[in-house]
Amino acid sequence: MNIITHQAINPELCGTALDVGKNTSRVELRTSQNMSVDDSGLVHGGFIFGLADYAAMIAVNHPHVVLGGANVKFIKPVVAGELVTAEAEVIQSEGKKQMVQVSVNRKDDVVFKGEFTCFVLDKHVLA
Fold it and tell me: What is the DSSP letter of 76?
């Protein structure tokens, strides 16, 4: 597994890569109480989005990949302490534009789905 993008990402916040292949990835995140928004342990959707975004970035796996947009749907809530896994696949590639489909699951339950529009730039976005 050779990840060449987002190498400084915090796995406690965005997940740990389990598998990276050609145009695919699988990333898991153990949610924590620090991610919850209330006493019931409801995990803030931003953490689930971050997991999905990271999976999309490493499915493209280019040093200068950036997110341009996303169309997402939160399907089921996630509770602190649960393990969720994102699976991503590049479904379309047109020049610098890469469309990536991502699904986040808790065991057999789909909790999130999204399509991410990624762009591969010639140089780092901040360069």
Answer: S
